Amino acid sequence: MQVQMTDRTKRRCADVGLVLLLSISMSSLLYQDVRAGDIIPALHDAIKADHNAYKVATVQSNDVASAQLSVEAAAQQRIRKLLFKDLAEATDADAGHDAEAALWRFWFSQAPTPEASKLLHAGIERRDSYDYEAAENLFDQLLELAPDYTEGYNQRAFARFLRQNYTDAKADLEKVLTMEPDHFGALSGLYHIHVIQGRGEIGFDYLKQAVVVHPWLKERSALPEDMRPAPPTAKKELGSGI
Question: Looking at the predicted structure, is the pLDDT value of residue 235 above 60?
Fold first, then answer.
């Protein structure tokens, strides 16, 4: 279907083109940063595929800023998908650990404001210095400022876990999984809590989910052998017939 465009709409779409170019550049830089490698061509293709939808959304809403946020959110989701794909397909422990580190960088980069990022890193610094109470207080401040920031709940859960406040740590981790169901850190955290509280069977279910997401997770050896998914290398060997 061909859409007739007024001069105003054409100007609006010109604005969209500029915003889209900036959005593509930001997405590309973010993916380069978190993977420290080349941009996957599929990322470019996926972003380009959004151009028409982005233009239509802007024309319909008459709001470039809203359309920009929409496309940036979609780009973030594509980057997330690619990073998890890297993790799932890592063929050895080194590649798995590199992919894991990239995801942590991605999650940290999603702090919505500079102040939120500052509080995140300050809390981690306090926790690494064994000042768990101060760390939890900083994460509380972070979540007051950014209540939709997934990683804030995960980091506070760790501080609470270290303070042996397993009930509130568990609540935070469950919150994380409502926002990021494949968060292997939250899944493994729930494994540890359930084991400590004498619910090993439930804990192993969480750990199995974590290992499905992250085949090279360091806790994978704690899984009973009959529950342990084969890593990608083993899967390929089984399928090769050799």
Answer: no
